[in-house]
Fold:
Amino acid sequence: MSLTTKVTALTKLLGRKCSVKLQSGYDFVDKLIAIETEKEGAFLIFEKAPVRYNFKEISSIEKYTEE
Structure:
């Protein structure tokens, strides 16, 4: 699956609270507010996160549902 296809699929999560797991093992819940695409790749921007995350850093992202 190409990067463009993956980013397009992520647009359904824009404005929603997401459960995110990073390649490093760190995980968090935050609202996805923007997706930026640049020559260097795609970057995800979350409401409360202090940095933008390169799509390659993320091992999984899905809509957050409270249990």
About this structure: Helices lie at 3-10. The chain has one helix and five strands. The mean pLDDT is 91.
